[in-house]
Structure formats: C-alpha cells, structure tokens
Amino acid sequence: MSLTDLIYLSQKSLRSNILRSVLTSLGIIIGVSSVITMISIGNGARLEVEQQIERFGSNNLILRAQSSNNRGVSMGNNSVNSLTLKDMEALKSEIPAISAIAPNVSLSSQVIANGNNWLTSVTGTTNEQFNISNWKFELGREFLEDELVSGSRVAIIGKTVQKNLFGEDNPIDEVIRINKVPFTVIGLLDAKGGTAWADLDDTIIVPLKTAKQRLVAKKFPGDQIRQMTINVSSSDLLFKTEADIDTVMRKLHKISANGNPDFVIRNYAQFLNARQESSRVMSILLATVAGISLIVGGIGIMNIMLVTVTERTKEIGVCMSVGAKKRDVLLQFLIESLMISLIGGCLGIALGLGVIFGVSEYFNWKMSLDYMSLVLSFVFSSSIGVIFGFYPARKAASLNPIDALRYE
Amino acid sequence: MINITSISKEYVMGDNKLLALNNVDVSINEGEFVSIMGSSGSGKSTLMNIIGCLDVPSHGDYFFRDNNISNYSSNKLAELRNKDIGFIFQNFNLLPRLNALENVILPLLYSGKSKKERVELALKALENVGLKDRTHHRPNQLSGGQQQRVSIARAIAGTPKLILADEPTGALDSTTSLEIMKILNDLNKSGITIVLVTHEDDIANYGSRIIKMKDGKILEDIKNVPN
Prior knowledge:
Structural class of chain B: alpha/beta
Oligomer: heterodimer
Radius of gyration of chain B: 17 Å
CATH class of chain B: Alpha Beta
Structural class of chain A: alpha+beta
Helix content of chain B: 25-40%
Largest sheet of chain A: 6 strands, mixed, barrel
Strand order of the largest sheet of chain A: 4-5-10-7-9-8
Radius of gyration of chain A: 33 Å
Number of helices of chain A: 14
Strand order of the largest sheet of chain B: 6-7-8-3-9-10
Largest sheet of chain B: 6 strands, mixed
Number of strands of chain A: 12
Distance between the termini of chain A: 27 Å
Largest interface: A-B, 24 and 26 residues
Strand content of chain A: 15-25%
CATH superfamily of chain B: P-loop containing nucleotide triphosphate hydrolases
CATH architecture of chain B: 3-Layer(aba) Sandwich
Shape of chain A: elongated
Strand content of chain B: 25-35%
Order of helices and strands of chain A: HHHEEEHEEHEHEHEEEHEHEHHHHH
Helix content of chain A: 55-70%
Order of helices and strands of chain B: EEEHEEHEHHHEHEHEE
C-alpha cells in the first residue's frame, strides 16, 4: 500500500471527526507555540546583547569620577573631578591587560551651523575612542597627531547632528559653532542607531586638548578628565582587570580598601549579562511549559488513538480480511496519529507566530524568529505523534483478523 | 483446490475447552458451489473462517492449491486472502466513510496495483453486479441489497479463485436474496469456486454440494442438483 493511499485513508477518518482531531492536538498546539516563542525570546535577547556589544565595543570598562562622601556630606555629582591624565598613564603602565584607554571630557552644548541650531553632547577625546567604541567613519578622517597636540578646532560629528544641522548635505569642511567657538568638520561617523538609553549618533567629538582649553576649561582644569573608556585585551580578563583598576586607583588616590572611592567602574558586560540572564529564566519557564504540554499532548493523542482503535476494531478486521497485513494496519494508525500531531504542529506554529508578533508589537520586546525553530517544531510534533501513536497502532496491528471481524 | 485433513479447532474459555471443530476432513474442487449448513454452534462458521485463512486450526493440515498453509505467517496469509479469496459477509462490512468505488478498491490497495488498474478493475466489478451508476454513493445511501452487491464487487475485484459467503442473504428480504443468489450463481458459472454458509434450505439448495455439520463434525456431505 503506497504512502499516498495511506494518507488518503487517514485524512478520511480524521475528517469524519474534525472536532475530536483538533481537540486531540490541543496539547501539541500549546507545546509547539511555546517552543517557538521560547526560541524567539532567547534569540531576540541574544541578538540584542550582541548588538549592544557591537555598539559599545566589547571588553570595555568605563572609569568615571564620582563625588565621594566627605565626612558624611555628599559633594554632589560632578562637583569633584578627581580623575586625571596621570591616573590614566599610571593605569596603562601598571595593568598589562589594558590594551587601550581613551580619556574624555564632555559637555552639553548648543551648536550652530548653517543657520540651524541643535543641542547635543560634545566629547573631547583621542583617536583611541574610535577604535575602542567601534566607531566607523562614513566620511572624512580621524584627528591628526598635531591637531591633538596643538588643540586644533576640528570636529567629527555623528549622524543625528549632521541631519539636524546640514540635512543630507556633505558636512565636511563646513564650520560649526560650539559654544560660539568655530570648529571645522573633518569627519562624519557611521550611524550606530539608538539604544534603550540614548541616541548614540547625537554626538560631536573634538580633540581632548581643544575641549579642555576652549570648552570646559573651568570644569576640568589642569589635567583633569571626566572619564576614561578602558579596553581590556580579552573578555576573560574583564573582571580581574576591573579589580586591578580598583586597587591601582585606590593607591593613587590614597583611599583605603574599605573607604569610599571617588571613582566608579562600569562594566557593560555585567549589565548585558543580567539582561541575558532574565531572558534565559523566561526561556526556561517556557521550555517547561512546552515540555509538559508536549508530553500531555502526546498522552492525549495516545488516549484518543486507543479509543479509535477500539471503535474501529471491526473495520480493522474487514481490512485484514481483504488482505491488509499487520504492517499496513500499523502504518495506517501511525500516520493518523502523525497527522493529528502535525495538524497540532501547524496550528501551534501559527499560534506561536501570533504570540511573537503580538508580544514584540505590544511590549516592544525584541524577538527573533529563526527557521530552525520551525523545523524543530515539526520534528518535535511529528516525533510525539509517532512515539505516542506507536502503542495504539501496534495494538491495532496485532489484532487477530477473526476476532476483529467478530467485534461488536 | 482445498484439501483439509483431520482439522480441529479448540477454544479455551476459562477452564473449559470448547471443541468447535473435531477432526474434520474436507476437500473442495475447483469450480464447485458448496453450501455448508448447520445450526449455530455446529462449527460451520469456524470451518469457513479456517478455509478463508481468517483463523488457523489448532491441529491438522490445510492444503490450499497444493500448498500446506498451516504454518504460513500472518503476512503470507494476508497475501493469500488478498489474491485468491473473496469474502461476502452477512452484514456487508463495508467501510462507512468510503464510497462504493473506494470500498471495492480497498483490497486492490493492498495488492499494490497501479492507480489506473485499480479503478478499472473496481469499475468492472461494480458493473458486473449492476451498480455502475452508484459508484460515488456511500454505504448509508444504498439499500441493503445494493450494499451486498458492493461487497460482492469488492470480493471479486481482485479476481479471486474462491469466494466465501457467510450468510450473504441473512440481512436481506426474499426478493433481494434471490438477486444476490443469482449473482453468486453466475459467478460460479464463470468458474469461481464458491463456499456458502447458511442455515436456510432454499439458499443452500443453490449449491452443487451440501455439507451438513453438527457439534464440530460433518454429519453428511451430499451432491445436490439445484432446481
């Protein structure tokens, strides 16, 4: 008996009891939709984390000055800028795991060009910043060595700044005024897109020395800086380096091991890990639901198939009397349970896609569907059908023709 | 064609052993029309089931066309039923979800014939029983007589050598019974061996030979001239 004939006969008997077939596959529907949703949530979270790392640069720590509590009186944020370029040099020489450090100062400033004005954040830093933070240039170039040394009035602008000041026009060699100081635009950064916190493209980067001399001379006198972005040579060393920086900084700033530090170290990896962890918990929860409902669904199929075999005992006898072999009967019932579970699988995929679409629209939660999960669902549901359909099918096949025929 | 030597069939029911067939010898030649008669419990159905390879004897040998099939596997028996034997039942035993044509095709599905050949054979069989215009009716849309004719078509679709009819008119009125018996008679004339089980004298009378059974034994085995 050919497969198409078997499928034809199976769909005939399934269609004669559509409601029962669909109800039977309910467990599979829920199981498969959970599997799909689970995988999508996991994938979405992983992708988001990867994108964040891509944006911020991997293996980065941020060391920032922080007001310390002075005899119980908080000096307020930014009131003390205790971080200096000397600290930077010391860290660089004392901790070999540090591969690069970009110092920076920053301010919020009104920028005027082309008759437009725009409030943006201006950062003074060195060329290291571009490497460490994964900035790519759409147009123009990095700072030249003598521009950094002499404090030239040159600026590299982000995509959002370009859009607001120049529209789609080429901004290179145009003059912009930051705090009334004219700067020449020498570069345009590639777009990075927004994050949950900020638009990373809304930025202007100028040489550190220029910023310190002309924009934030009062706020960051001498060799003081606001923060540094520290690149660690390998992600395995990230946490150890964080501890080393803490030790070195305490020594430099003469703060005891349990004293309040006047700096803070931020670790993006830590933050991203937490985000990944929470989606992992969600996935485990869904995997449990999926697993339980697939098993319950399988038992449901087995139960209904046993009922079907009993109901159709006489019919099995008739088929055997006209020449059906054990194998034919076995296959017939296996294909029926396989079809039930595949129907469940398809409906489950549809439901899962609906859930994914709904959740990502409503919660603005990033979910990513990959085709592997569809394949996986098919494999899952069909193996459930075969595994749980096997016992009833074997029971049907092992019937004695004459007993089956006589069954009332 | 059929040679049965000292066959017995025991059923075990709890502690009791029931001897449905007790040392029976029968041989049936090609082209015969044999009626098996007897009251219920006489063993006539058991004998027919064994002849039809639906059941296996407890003891004794069964030669079908010179092959000893007493030790055939269930697969080989299924093949034999499929190719050489056609069944007609008292309650027709058609599959309710399939239409007349599909019911007739059923045995051909198991014999692995091509789709075209199957439909041709099934249509021919339905034509033979005068149901060419009812091919797409389901059993519940057909009268009892028509259903029995579909089941005859199913029995002959695979061009078997032997047809076994178990009380084929038991659920039919006398006019329809006559039609059915006429079809069986014609089939016999075309060369098909027929074994018919009945407890009605006038039905048994169609046979060229009548075997009477009682308590698992053959009481008498006589030639008969149908009138």
